[in-house]
Amino acid sequence: MGAGNVGATTGYMLASKDLGDVVLTDIVEGLAEGKALDMAQSGGVYPFAAVVTGSSDWAATADSDIVIITSGMPRKPGMSRDDLLVKNVAIVKSVTGEVVKHSPEAFIIVVCNPLDAMVYLAAKVSGFAKSKVMGMAGGLDSARFACFIAAELGVSIADVKGVLMGGHGDDMVPLPRFTTVGGGVLGELMDSEKIDKLIERTRKGGIEIVNLLGYSAYYAPAAGAVKMAEAIIKDKKTEMSCCAYCEGEYGVGGTFVGVPVVLGAGGVEKIIELDLNQAEKALFAKSVAHVKQLAAKVDRLMSG
């Protein structure tokens, strides 16, 4: 849902990996249809079996197994993710209502910002099981962290496994103690000053791209959403970070926030609880508090 940069790129990746038939939808007449036709024709060069269609009619999405919500206002230079809250509450509320109407058995993966608050909203509006509603954030943030680490060390990014927790924002919590490079712990390969610089760059990774392009990133976010969808479709039991509902885990007390999870045919099948030290717990608690503030704003906007 949403055929802009993130939505269209996600759709193309899904189709090219043959993960299933893909329907692009957008309120802009002709946008989804045109991009879907272009994608379908690309199959004549690099063949795939997936059928790709586009429509401005939500009925075309009926009985979807997975719905990826990319609809929403993107960031522009000078904007924080939180600045998008009011506008995107209305959009995600409307889109989620269409999901409930046309695909009541679907899994929902939210990509738009402010991410954690929009996942909370989608869960509240849909009433779906908490395990079936999640957000793509940790996969993106971990990928950025891994990218910066690989470049600094001159190693393959495939050998780096970055681990992050917390809200998708400036108070996200990269965890160098759990981040590995070729099986070795990051702290054994890089001094703390360099690690701190990479952590800060990761936290500012989104706005760095916004400032360069004038709009939000889309290749890496799309890849993160596709990885989540693939884990569910293929029941891969993939361990990765994403925005998921936590109750007793990490003492969160009931909200959606970024944590390591296992994704499979049941959606979020398990929350992986890492043994955080006191400093990590404090950073995570601060991030969770911010996420809960945003959720409270969503509630006020919904009731108003």
Short description:
The chain has 304 residues and is α/β, with parallel strands linked by helices. It has helices spanning 5-16, 31-42, 85-102, 115-126, 138-153, 192-203, 205-213, 219-233, 278-303, and strands spanning 22-25, 52-55, 66-69, 107-110, 133-135, 160-161, 164-165, 173-174, 180-181, 184-185, 238-246, 255-264, 267-271. Strand 3, helix 3 (85-102) and strand 4 (107-110) form a beta-alpha-beta unit.
Describe this structure in words.
This protein has 304 residues and is of the alpha/beta class. The protein has 2 domains: 5-135, NAD(P)-binding Rossmann-like Domain (Rossmann fold); 138-299, Alpha-Beta Complex (L-2-Hydroxyisocaproate Dehydrogenase, Chain A, domain 2), CATH 3.90.110.10. The chain is 43% helix and 17% strand. It has 9 helices and 13 strands. The chain has helices at residues 5-16, 31-42, 85-102, 115-126, 138-153, 192-203, 205-213, 219-233, 278-303, and strands at 22-25, 52-55, 66-69, 107-110, 133-135, 160-161, 164-165, 173-174, 180-181, 184-185, 238-246, 255-264, 267-271. It has a 3-stranded parallel β-sheet, sandwiched between helices. A 3-stranded antiparallel β-sheet has the order 6-9-10, with helices on one face. Strands 11-12-13 form a 3-stranded antiparallel β-sheet. A hairpin with a 2-residue loop joins β9 (180-181) and β10 (184-185). The protein is globular, with a radius of gyration of 19 Å. The two termini are 26 Å apart.
